[in-house]
Amino acid sequence: MQAAWLLGALVIPQLLGFGHGARGAEREWEGGWGGAQEEEREREALMLKHLQEALGLPTGRGDENPENPVGTREGKGTWETEEDYEEEEEEEATATPSSSPSPSPTPEDTVTYILGRLAGLDAGLHQLHVRLHALDTRVVELARGLRQLREAAGDTRDAVQDLQEAQRRAEREHGRLEGCLKGLRLGHKCFLLSRDFEAQAAAQARCVARGGTLAQPADRQQMEALTRYLRGALAPYNWPVWLGVHDRRAEGLYLFENGQRVSFFAWHRAPRPEPGARPSAAPHPLSPDQPNGGALENCVAQASDDGSWWDHGCERRLYYVCEFPF
Question: Could you tell me the CA-to-CA distances from 141 to 129, 138, 146, 161, 291 in Å, in that order?
């Protein structure tokens, strides 16, 4: 095939050149006659056809495009393309396998597939069991940590309670010492006046926090000593001061804060008319006889000027006097 191409490349240009030279001479000699030119083209086409048949080349390209020489690059490229296309078709035909029906699965294949799936499921369950075991271990560790934390919190709470109790004991001891050092010491008791305005219940709580209670004069001697102490501390003014006496449990039943019943009283009495003056049935408007509040006034306060007792509403804010043991 290559030898034929080489021969065509050498011979055809010479023939074409010879034809063109002859045609030029005829044109000069005949003066451009159209019939001679047509005969020249037919002769060239016939010679090209015989040459292609002799060389075994395809004749279609020469007939369709006689102006394209056989030995040119375009013609050669066309032949190469056709041959390559034929070779590719042969290779595709050779490479394409013959289609055959796929074999149907046998019972053994089905069993093998099922066993494989079961094995995969068993492996997955094993992995799940391992993870659940790890999770259970973590939960146990977390529960142990929480238990230890709860125990530590309990110990801390106990320590805080111990500290608070120690602080309360220190405050009570400090209040007792302060009451006996700054206040009035009388036998086994000490009285200390507080100039803070508090309700009766709040005053009792303040006294208890300092290790004492609201003053509870047990007899007239203690009452007179407390009167002198309050008069000297608050003179020249007259201030009511809370005592630890009330009748909240039952009207007319006066008790101390420790629950003991009051054995004597020092209620305020209105001024008596002078001898020879006609007595008046109307009570004194500024200092009526006490107690006169009924169920509305259930707590007792002592006047600082004369030591008399007055009943007041328990929510009224007054000075108070604490009592401490000695």
Answer: 18, 5, 9, 30, 70
The answer as to whether 225 is a domain residue is yes
301 forms bridges with which residues in the sheet? 242, 310
pLDDT digit string (tens) for 274-294?
Answer: 666 565 545 555 667 888 878
- Per the listing, tokens 């799940």 go with 128
Where does residue 180 rank: exposed (0-12), middle (13-18), buried (19+ CB within 10 A)? middle
- Phi, psi (rounded to 5 degrees) for 322: -100, 155
Please write down the HEC assignment for all residues of 14-62.
HHHHHHHHHHHHHHHHHCCCHHHHHHHHHHHHHHHHHHHHHHCCCCHHH
pLDDT tens, 45-87? 887 776 667 666 665 544 444 444 444 444 444 444 455 555 5
Residue 248 · residue 314 · CB < 8 Å: yes
Give the chain's domain count. 2
Give yes or no for residue 167 having a pLDDT over 50. yes
What is the rounded CA–CA span in Å between residue 12 and residue 8?
6
Structural domain boundaries, residue 263: 183-270+287-325
